[in-house]
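Now for a chain:

_____
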Amino acid sequence: MTLRRPYADRLFFLFFGGFLLAGTVLLAGLLLDDDLSWAGWLYRGVAALFALWLGIFSLRYAVLPFRIDIDRLGWTVRTPDLDRYLRWDEIDKVAIAPGPKRSERLIVVPATGVTLDVRHSARATLDDRPAVELFRLGEVAYDDGRLARDLAELAGDRFQNRVARLTLPLGRQLSPFPGPLDHARLRRWLNRRTALLFTGWYLLVLLPALAIVDLAATAHELLGAVVLVAALIGVAAALIRAATIFSDSRRLAHTSASIDGPYLVTSAYDIKRRIPLQSGEVAVLPPGSKRGYGKAWLLTDTTPCLLLSSPHTGHVRSADDLRMLSATLSESPHDSDRAAALELDRLATSSLVTVPLDRAQLSPAPASPAPVSSASASSASASPAQISPVQAGTADGANLWLALTAIGRVVGWLAVVATIALAGGTIVDNSSFVGPALILGAAALFGVWILYALYRILGLLGALMRFAGRAFYARG
């Protein structure tokens, strides 16, 4: 097997790095303008240095060799971090394991006595042993599932797969919820509410804080500095609070789940993360019990661990999933767990009804299930894993729309950076500390904003390519 970086990625970074280096030369020429103010010189200088660093990084990614050949004799590794041949007897373990920020990486643990000299950024540990991270799964043009299968065949007992989505399901697998199209709609619903919170933070927190800092700095330099520090803490705390209101709902919407004995496995990135369903701490919470979950029914232990209905529409997940959970909970010796099982049975009955139900509509002992049309019954009982190309294409269209609307967040954050810079510019004549501090802070945020804008633009291009590829496949 041969592992390489995608040619399209390398070509993109080659042109992108060249574009940034050309922009660096242009900015360097503008710095020689004698009529340039010190603030303009600072902004252009920071932008030139940032463009130079990012351009060199992009060209390095595109030009340096990256190829890994693996066969039954060993590994031929040519990467920016490692360039050598490894026999199988020099390798103790090969693992696909979770990494930082929900990434997945390929790790090699050398045998005892074998030393692999790599940069600090490529060093890793596995079971408290020194190891080398060769790459992250998204960096190579190789299917993740095929990579796991081929490594298992070549490495034998040396190979360990610690990523849940690339392994066989543990126990009884719950169906994906929400489905692809409903998941895209849920993300759009969450994005709208997050945008409202961001607007409120900008108008009610950031602008008043900058106005107070302006007044304090005009009155006295020391007072302005104290108020600036206090405002920074308050604005950051309010932003973090606004950003985390819906974060748990997003996390649960991205979580796969399965039942393994008396445990619920809820992490797609950590196969060992288990939640006991017979501990006496499991409960079923109705909509409105937890802030940030909308219309969702929740399965909780100490914290919410599984969505039982959609936060957006309130539609309940499949009856089969709910009954599997109920069957496990009903075997618990604790009364609270068995009460949660009864609540799940009632939800399973309501999942056959197309209209979402609230707590008042769930009678303690329903006499009979609500009448259901054959169309809705077949839709509710259909397995979400069986997704037609039309449904997948519709989901790709929704994801493309989400990527387009994400550009609006780029504009919003640019407005924040510009507001801080403008506030610093109005204060700089009256304050020797507060004004320059705000301008320097805005310059640093502008560098972060450039990275964020690139991330969103690349996400938009990826969504556009997936949508175009799906349309081409459907036409063919």
